[in-house]
Amino acid sequence: MKINGTPYRSVWVNEKDGWSVHIFDQTRLPFSLDILRLTTQQDVAHAISTMQVRGAPLIGAVAAYGLALALRQDAGDTAMEQNAAMLAATRPTAINLRWAIERMLKALRPVAPQDRVAAAYAEAGRICDEDAAQNEAIGRHGLELIRALAKSRPAGTQINLLTHCNAGWIATVDWGTALAPIYMAHDEGLNVHVWVDETRPRNQGAALTAWELGSHGVPHTVIADNAGGHLMQHGLVDLVIVGTDRVTRTGDVANKIGTYLKALAAQDNNVPFWVALPSTTIDWTVANGVTEIPIEERAASEITHVAGRDANGALTRVQITPDRSPAANPAFDVTPARLVTGLITERGCCPATEAGLHTLFPEQ
Ligand SMILES: CSC[C@H]1O[C@H](OP(=O)(O)O)[C@H](O)[C@@H]1O
């Protein structure tokens, strides 16, 4: 997507040296657009675990380059397996991370060590190109849902969407998943407006989704996470579209904490609740998301403190809880398939069911 007219992806190989990897430091957005240069697998692991880079498809793509960086140091079998395991362990919930590492290993194990670095950069590049193309396709399929809503209303009526967390282009290699249909609807002139859940505790919605939509000129309003149900009760939400970090073969959806509550409110108010995902986010080995998907527990400090810009323009963190109050920080929850209207994938839309997924992915 474009930033001030310049096209960017969320990860790219440094064009000057041909091997280091560039990402945006998402912990400094929306107030500062900082490009980080990653030169080792440790840099990549740190960027993923501290969420300088985040978003299910993107952490997979960046981890793929992390393995390429590791191979520059040691392309032997033992080191490759150890570094792959280290990168895969940086975050537990998004299946894309494990998928990308397993895909890289499958491609690299048959390759002679002396040829592995070049092969790794090529495979990581393919992962990135495929993600961008899949997300653009998700955009086209999700656009049909928004077009259908627009046709069901008087011409020009505002279509109000709600999204949770950030599943935009900065959470993927390009285009995004939940936001891709919204960008396309806006670009073709549909009157869309987005309610943006702030998404405590790290505020990916307030900081990243609002930044993305504002940069693209998409009308939006940031709201407290707890406001969505009220807006739905008053008919102010026509459609919910969220991203996901892992979907089971039965359609259960792991996503940022708070998604489940939004899905409950949507069902109670008959608001369509759609989940956008590339097939790299489907975990075909898991049936019951609530009992089988590992939920990342992050630091209590993400609850007790909040990041932002102070009156002097400096980025800072302030404490918002008493010194001695404990905090718990599950970073994801699982929305059962029964609460999901449907899934938007690169191959089209389907019900959130095993049969629905198999109509689109019969090879699985
Ligand atoms: C397009 S996947 C985005 C997905 O990933 C986010 O998690 P995090 O910010 O912790 O990486 C969130 O669950 C989004 O829906």
TrEMBL record:
GO terms for molecular function: S-methyl-5-thioribose-1-phosphate isomerase activity. InterPro entries: IF-2B-related, IF-M1Pi, IF_2B-like_C, Initiation_fac_2B_a/b/d, M1Pi_N, NagB/RpiA_transferase-like. The keyword Isomerase applies. Substrate binds at residues 54-56, 91, 204, 255-256. Signal peptide: none annotated. Keywords: Amino-acid biosynthesis, Isomerase, Methionine biosynthesis. HAMAP family: Salvage_MtnA. This is Methylthioribose-1-phosphate isomerase. It comes from Acetobacter orleanensis.
